[in-house]
Amino acid sequence: MHRRPPRTRLFAAALAATLAVVAAATTTAGYAAAAGCRVAYTIGSQWSGGFTANVNVTNIGDPVSGWTLRWSFTAGQSVSQAWNATVTQSGSTVTAVNAGWNGSLPTNGSAGFGFNGGWNNSANPVPTSFTLNGVTCTGSVGPTTSPTVAPTTAAPTTPPPGGVPPQRTVRVYWLKPTDVAYDQRYPDGIANVMREAQRYYRQELGRTFTLNNPVVEVVNGDHPRAWYENTPNGNECYWWVVFNMQQELMRKLSLRAPDTRWINVGEISAEASCSGGGGGGGWVILSGHDADGAAGIGGTMNRWYGGMVHELGHAFGLPDSTSTDGTPMSASFYNYPNTHFSQAQKDRILSGPYGSFLS
């Protein structure tokens, strides 16, 4: 669950609605009306095999109450120790999540952190691209627009082991690329996030959705991680990973977009520095940082719980809030569980196309 960062993206109902981002991711989750950022990355000192770097990120868009900064190393560098942020690395992609005391970034607010790293004694270039909560840092503020999504079709395939789950339920998938090792933390962690979201919806609406058993269907991907990250799909690289995942899930499992039989939640262990995710039209599609977060890697669990509640809200038909209003459809999802649906949002979920899925 991006998370999920400050920009609104919704995916289509009847393949004409739009996919909405987080965190999560999830960040990437709830986004502000405009987003922008700039990053200063400096190498403080360097020695044989090691270096120290300092990173300062400035939010020049609408205020955020939690941040995730991502970039990719291009020369095999690695992070070994960090301070003032939780920093993790998957392949070349580095994810930095705010510490407990520096998560709030008002407009023009900044936060800094540092880390020790390793390099190959040949080249240690400064990263050229960063994303803050899924938004590429260009040094300017841009409106949050929604992409146009081309219709996709799904070819029939063999039902999953144990048969096809009952309709009018929430199906959840972890797509594992061919070069990613199986790790039980991922299906277990994603299942726990879904159970918490299930509990929250019952608390807020008096009814909730049904999960299947097992909660998470593990799907072995057809490609290595880099293929999902680098194969263009959609009008910007933000969507490549999750659209590639979604279309493979549709092909393998005979799914549709939108799908009147199930609400579908897909997470994949792949992510480029520009990757994000979102929800809408009965789907939630999330990239690597949400899968990592659910598995307990990268940030507090409240952020991933709140991000999933947010993205499921989009899947049920809710738009982003226009301000940080205390509801999980705004940046208030970062304060989970101290956030609540408004009565208008509850009514819209229950009267929407998937309201009958709740019991």
TrEMBL record:
Keywords: Signal
Residue ranges, annotated region (Disordered): 143-167
GO molecular function, one term: polysaccharide binding
Record field: compositional bias (Low complexity): 143-156
Record InterPro entries: CBD2, CBM2/CBM3_carb-bd_dom_sf, CBM2_carb-bd_dom_sf
Gene Ontology BP terms: carbohydrate metabolic process
Name by which UniProt lists this protein: CBM2 domain-containing protein
Domain CBM2: 30-140
Record's signal peptide: 1-34
Signal is among the record's keywords: yes
